[in-house]
UniProtKB/TrEMBL annotation:
Keywords: Transferase. It comes from the Bacteria. Transmembrane segments: none annotated. Gene3D superfamilies: Glycogen Phosphorylase B (3.40.50.2000). It comes from uncultured Coleofasciculus sp. GO terms for molecular function: glycosyltransferase activity. Pfam families: Glyco_transf_4, Glycos_transf_1. Residues 191-354 form the Glycosyl transferase family domain. Residues 13-179 form the Glycosyltransferase subfamily 4-like N-terminal domain. The lineage of its organism: Bacteria, Bacillati, Cyanobacteriota, Cyanophyceae, Coleofasciculales. This is Glycosyltransferase.
Length: 382
C-alpha cells in the first residue's frame, strides 16, 4: 500500500511523534509531505522514512482564524495543493495527520481521486479552535474523508458533536513500544545527580510550554508542598507561545521558588528523565485529546497524576493506574504530590499496575495492525 502522509508541522509535537510510528511500517513505499521544515524532518530521516518539505512558504492560518482569514489562506495554499495533487497520483491513499493537512488533503483527494484518511489528534471544540476552523474541519472531513481515525473516544465524541459523521470514525489510541521505556534505573539516578537534584522529590512535567498545558498549575501547587518537592519542566514553546514562557519565569521569581524549579527545554531523552522522576504530572487546563505523556509515564513505571478531562479519563483508572485531579486545581495537585511523597509504596504499587496495563493496552504492534486493516478496507473499496 502506497501512502502519502501529510503533516503541517516542522516540529515534533505528539501528533508528529505518533505519525513516525504509523509511517514506519510503510517506509519502503510511502512519503511524508510536510508543510514546514524543522527537526521533525530529521526524526523521520533517522527512521529512514521518506520525507519531503512540500510548502515553500509558511502557512498563515491559525487555530483561531476567522472565516475571511480562512478563505484568504486557501488561495495562498494553491501552489501547495497543486504540488500535493501531483504527488498524490503516485500513491493509493492520502493520510492527513493535522488540520491544515486535512484542508490541503481534502482538496487534493478530490482532484486526484485518491481516498482520504484523516487522523484526528484534536478535540474539535471551542476550547481549542475558532468556530470557523471547527466548521472547516468537520465539513471537509464529512465531504471527503473515507475514514477518520480519532485518537480517543473524547476526540471522536467532540467530532460527532460538532457535526462529524460517526459512521466513518474509528477510535485508535497511540501505540508505544513498551520495551523502550524500561531502562536500567542507575542511568536515571546518575542523571538526577548530574542535574543536582539528588535527595529531592522530583515532579516531572513533560509537555510543550503552552498555556493550556497548564505548567503554571504545577508552580502554584509547588508552594503548597514541602521544600524538598521540586518541579522539572521538560519541553519548549513549539508554536510561538513565548509570552507564556516569560510568564512562567516571572511567576517562579514572584513565588521565590527558583531553587525548586528546573526548565530543561525540549529534550529527546524523555525515558531516562521520566525514570528520574518520583511522579509525573499532567496539568492540561483544557481537555487533552489523548496525552502521550500519561502513557509514557506509565510505561516508565512512574506514578502519574493527570487532569480529569478528555482522553486522560480513558487512560487513567483513578487510584488503580494513576491519580486524577480536576483541571486547573493546584490545591488538589499538591495533595496528590504530598501523598505520593509520604506514601511511596502505595504510589509504586499503582505505578506498577499502570505499567503492566499500559504495556498491553497501547502496544504499537497491535495498534499498527488495527490501522493496517482499516486502511486496506479503504484502498480496496476505492
Ligand atoms: N516530548 C519530547 N520532548 C520534550 C517534551 C515532550 O519528546 O521535551 C514528547 C513527549 O514525550 C510526548 C510528546 O512530546 O511523546 C507530547 O505528546 P502529548 O500527546 O503528550 O502532547 P501534545 O504536545 O502532542 O499535545
Ligand atoms: C495531539 C494532542 C495530544 C495527543 C497527540 C497524539 O498533539 O494534543 O493530546 O496525545 O496529538 O495523538
Amino acid at each position: 500500500m502506497k501512502i502519502l502522509f501529510l503533516d503541517q508541522s516542522g516540529k515534533p509535537g505528539g501528533a508528529e511523534l505518533c505519525l513516525i510510528d504509523i509511517a514506519k511500517p510503510y517506509r519502503d513505499s510511502c512519503l511524508v509531505g510536510l508543510f514546514a521544515d524543522g527537526s521533525f524532518r530529521n526524526l523521520l530521516e533517522q527512521q529512514h522514512i521518506p520525507v519531503q518539505v512540500l510548502a515553500t512558504e509558511p502557512i498563515q492560518v491559525r487555530k483561531e482564524s476567522s472565516f475571511a482569514q480562512g478563505l484568504g489562506s486557501v488561495s495562498s495554499l494553491m501552489p501547495l495543493i497543486a504540488r500535493v495533487v501531483r504527488k498524490a497520483r503516485e500513491y493509493d491513499l492520502i493520510y492527513a495527520n493535522t488540520q491544515k493537512a486535512l484542508v490541503v488533503g481534502a482538496i487534493a483527494s478530490f482532484l486526484s481521486r485518491r481516498p482520504l484518511v484523516y487522523h484526528l489528534h484534536d478535540i474539535l471544540s471551542l476550547d481549542h479552535f475558532s468556530r470557523t476552523n471547527l466548521s472547516i474541519a468537520v465539513t471537509l472531513a464529512n465531504a471527503q474523508a473515507s475514514l477518520v481515525i480519532a485518537n480517543s473516544k473524547a476526540s471522536k465524541m467532540a467530532f460527532v458533536k460538532a457535526g462529524g459523521r460517526e459512521q466513518i470514525t474509528e477510535v485508535v489510541y497511540n501505540g508505544f513500544e513498551p520495551e523502550l521505556y524500561r531502562i536500567d534505573q542507575s542511568s536515571s539516578s546518575q542523571l538526577k545527580q548530574q542535574l543536582g537534584l539528588d535527595g529531592r522529590f522530583l515532579v516531572g512535567h513533560f509537555s510543550r510550554l503552552s498555556p493550556w498545558k497548564g505548567q503554571h498549575i504545577l508552580l502554584e501547587a509547588l508552594v503548597r508542598c514541602p521544600e524538598d518537592v521540586t518541579a522539572l519542566f521538560v519541553g519548549d514553546a513549539l508554536f510561538g507561545e513565548q509570552d507564556y514562557v516569560q510568564l512562567l519565569h516571572k511567576r517562579v521569581a514572584e513565588l521565590g521558588i527558583e531553587e525548586r524549579v528546573r526548565f530543561l527545554g525540549f529534550r529527546s531523552d524523555i525515558v531516562p528523565l521520566m525514570n528520574a522522576c518520583d511522579l509525573v504530572a499532567h496539568t492540561s487546563t483544557a481537555p487533552e485529546p489523548f496525552g502521550r505523556v500519561i502513557v509514557e509515564a506509565m510505561l516508565c513505571g512512574r506514578p502519574v497524576v493527570a487532569a480529569e478531562a478528555g482522553g486522560a479519563i480513558e487512560l487513567v483508572e483513578p487510584d488503580i493506574t494513576g491519580f486524577l485531579i480536576p483541571p486547573g486545581d493546584p490545591t488538589r495537585l499538591a495533595e496528590i504530590i504530598i501523598s505520593c511523597r509520604n506514601q511511596p509504596l502505595h504510589a509504586a504499587t499503582i505505578a506498577h499496575q499502570a505499567q503492566s496495563q499500559a504495556s498491553q493496552c497501547f502496544d504499537l504492534t497491535t495498534v499498527n495492525q488495527q490501522i493496517e486493516k482499516l486502511l486496506y478496507r479503504i484502498v480496496k473499496g476505492k
